[in-house]
Amino acid sequence: MTQKNRGILTVVSGFSGAGKGTIMKELMKVHGERYALSISATTRAPRPGETEGVEYFFRSREEFEQMIADEALIEYAAYVGNYYGTPRAYVEEQLAAGRDVILEIEIQGALKVKRRFPDTLLLFVTPPSAAILKERLTGRGTETSDVIESRLVRAAEEICGIEAYDYLIVNDRLQECVERVHQIISNERYRISRNESFLAGMRAELDAFSQKNK
Ligand code: ADP
Ligand code: 5GP
């Protein structure tokens, strides 16, 4: 292919505690040269071990509202009492440079992105069972039991929107799950609709052959 294709935009969503963050970290470790992982802005407080500009850009409510007013976010949503949003510039630059971009965001934001960029690939991560979800959320040890309860209520709401997604990723064995995500995104490159410039070139060459043979 002579002309560089635009990168593929993938959204990864899933219940809190399903393992999205863990999968993304591992995917970047193993295939980091292929992907640009967008870092979101949020008004929630950093968890122990989280660093500004690594997991999130941690912002005050006022700063976040200023980003909304400046149209600096592709999408944003409220989730269990806090704002979360995707900074626009990084995503647009990376896609234009032909890199595959991943957003790890919740379902309302995912649907907004899909509406705005209809060729977005939507992946939904679940744990093998609801009981394992609760275990993982509790085991992570980063939220109070009240917040865990709110996140489980939110999970029950989120599963209702799952039909909008393209692929289900059951996060049982981590490495297998990471490879599955990588394979699915890789396969998207071969979609007819993502190879229009290559096909236009082929069509023109074939037309030239048939003109000669007339
Ligand atoms: P999310 O980003 O979806 O909220 P995390 O990545 O923080 O979820 O994972 C929640 C918890 O589950 C973490 O303690 C993590 O270590 C654990 N975890 C993630 N994936 C697996 C897996 N495949 N098997 C067992 N534990 C997992
Ligand atoms: P957490 O507080 O566990 O890091 O994230 C809570 C939820 O917010 C997760 O479902 C996560 O995917 C989602 N999230 C993170 N960043 C964004 C974002 O930029 N936009 C939206 N809409 N959701 C996000």
Query: Radius of gyration, rounded?
Result: 20 Å
Q: What is the number of helices?
A: 8
- Low-confidence region ranges: none
N-to-C span: 28 Å
Spatial strand order of the main sheet: 2-7-1-8-9
Strand content: 15-25%
Number of strands: 9
List the ligand species: adenosine-5'-diphosphate, guanosine-5'-monophosphate
Oligomeric state as shown:
single chain
Percent helix among the residues? Answer: 40-55%
Topology as a string of helices (H) and strands (E): EHEEEHEEHEHEHHEHH
**Mean of all residue-level pLDDT scores:** 94
Task: Explain the overall architecture.
- This protein has 214 residues and is α/β, with parallel strands linked by helices.
- The protein contains 8 helices and 9 strands.
- It has helices at 20-31, 61-69, 88-96, 107-116, 130-140, 145-158, 174-188, 196-212, and strands at 9-14, 35-37, 40-42, 56-58, 73-79, 82-87, 100-104, 121-126, 167-170.
- The protein has a 5-stranded parallel beta sheet with strand order 2-7-1-8-9, with helices on both faces. Strands 4-3-6-5 form a 4-stranded mixed beta sheet.
- Helix 1 packs across helix 7.
- The longest helix is centred in the C-terminal third of the chain and has 17 residues, at 196-212.
- The model has no long low-confidence stretch (mean pLDDT 94).
- It binds adenosine-5'-diphosphate and guanosine-5'-monophosphate.
- Guanosine-5'-monophosphate (5GP) is lined by residues 16, 20, 40, 44, 75-77, 79, 84-86, 104-106, 108-109.
